[in-house]
TrEMBL record:
One of its GO terms (biological process) is peptide metabolic process. This is peptidylglycine monooxygenase. PANTHER family: PEPTIDYL-GLYCINE ALPHA-AMIDATING MONOOXYGENASE (PTHR10680:SF14). It comes from the Eukaryota. Cu(2+) binds at residues 58-59, 122, 187, 189, 258.
Length: 399
């Protein structure tokens, strides 16, 4: 958004971005560049970095679209796209950034149906001077697998007053090529207790995700991907507690409820043409109710901690924060390392310093260098600063 002012509570506002006419992928990359709005850089993706705060917005969804619903730069209402569309990211409750696995990406731009990115924000209340949004960075580097998202859930939500443990099951049968779910996200409003999603293969049930929707809502990586094959079943439910003296129904405002679980998956490039949309984007309502009866009894119990979803332990994220220039009241992540790369960088910096020290002594003219974050070098000799981007070295380190 650009200095946006809402006109009512629970306003839905969308902003569009037209992609350049070239083949692009949204996926994990390990190259980093500083962004200068006055110049044009080729930018590689580090992930989805939400530029938003839960005091302003209830949630934010990011779509790739064939056409935006409106020709305007931004518009109010719940219409998002025309033609083909796919949700690629969701955010709520100050959730952290999300990074796709290596060699997986969303294909957009030329030779795909997706020519636009549309970000839809559900605002809480009246506010002025809002600059919320989502930072996406694209890459030209090819990927071994494409990414897609299944939206699952139900509209059958009726939360009777002063009632606990209200279940809203949903189910469907998967038809399509084999896919591998590697991340998931859940969404309800304030009455949600726990959301869960399962796969049924040959009548054996496997957990995909079980999560408390009152925790920060974003995609979280799974320790082990869950493979979904043709004719498998996907089942799940949302569980609610209503302590109010009124009935709660499904709706779009924060005074209503929703039941959503997003499952992000990968599939082989040979299985689907890049010109076609991803397989199976929707699993909605209780189409195969007899299979929903297999949902385990412990699905009503929320997990004790976030890690119950089996988030990867070898991809621990180290996030450094800076004050966002447009919304200075909050901290925003700008760069993410995993643990292995963190130690590699430290070791390489030490080795580089020793090499510079030896070279300097041999030349009889020692220059003092300090390594800065992002691989920049500051030359402090003679009282001035020269910033140099050691991109080749950093790319070698972070690939």
């Amino acid at each position: 958004m650009n200095n946006y002012e809402t006109t009512k509570e629970d306003e839905y506002v969308s902003i569009q971005y037209k992609l350049s006419d070239e083949e692009l992928l949204i996926g994990n990359m390990t190259k980093y560049f500083l962004i200068n709005k006055k110049k044009s850089f080729q930018i590689n993706l580090v992930g989805f970095i939400p530029l938003i705060n839960m005091t302003n917005a209830h949630h934010m969804l990011t779509y790739i679209c064939e056409e935006p619903a409106e020709k305007k730069l931004f518009w109010s209402g719940n219409t998002i796209c025309n033609g083909e569309q796919t949700i690629i990211h969701g955010w709520s409750k100050n959730a952290p950034p999300f990074i796709l696995p290596k060699d997986v990406g969303f294909a957009v731009g030329r030779n795909t149906p997706y020519k636009y990115i549309v970000v839809n924000i559900h605002y809480f209340s009246l506010l002025k001077n809002d600059y919320s949004g989502n930072q996406l960075i694209l890459t030209h580097k090819s990927r071994k697998s494409y990414a897609g998202v299944i939206l699952s859930g139900t509209n059958q939500i009726y939360l009777k007053e002063n009632t606990q443990t209200i279940r809203t099951p949903f189910s469907c049968q998967y038809k399509g090529p084999t896919i591998s779910i590697f991340a998931a996200s859940v969404h309800t409003h304030q009455w949600g207790r726990v959301n869960s999603l399962y796969r049924v293969h040959d009548y054996e049930i496997s957990l995909i995700i079980k999560m408390n929707p009152q925790n920060p809502q974003s995609f979280y990586r799974l320790l082990l991907p869950v493979e979904i094959k043709n004719n498998d079943y996907i089942i799940g439910q949302c569980v609610y507690d209503n302590n109010l003296d009124k009935t709660i129904h499904i709706g779009e405002t924060h005074n209503d409820e929703m039941c959503n679980i997003y499952a992000m998956y990968s599939y082989n490039l040979s299985q689907k043409s890049i010109n076609n949309p991803p397989p199976f984007p929707l699993c909605w309502d209780n189409a195969v109710s007899q299979m929903a009866n297999l949902i385990p009894e412990d699905s009503i119990i929320p997990p004790l901690k976030l890690n119950y979803i089996n988030q990867t332990t070898d991809d621990e994220q180290y996030i450094s924060y800076v004050k966002h220039s447009m919304n200075s009241s909050r901290d925003l992540p700008i760069k993410i390392f995993n643990q292995q790369n963190y130690f590699i960088i430290i070791i390489t910096i030490l080795i580089s310093f020793l090499i510079l020290l030896i070279i300097g002594r041999c030349m009889g003219n020692l220059q003092y260098f300090s390594y800065m974050r992002h691989g920049d070098i500051i030359n402090r000799r003679k009282g001035f600063q020269i910033l140099k981007q050691s991109s080749d070295q950093e790319n070698d380190l972070l690939d």
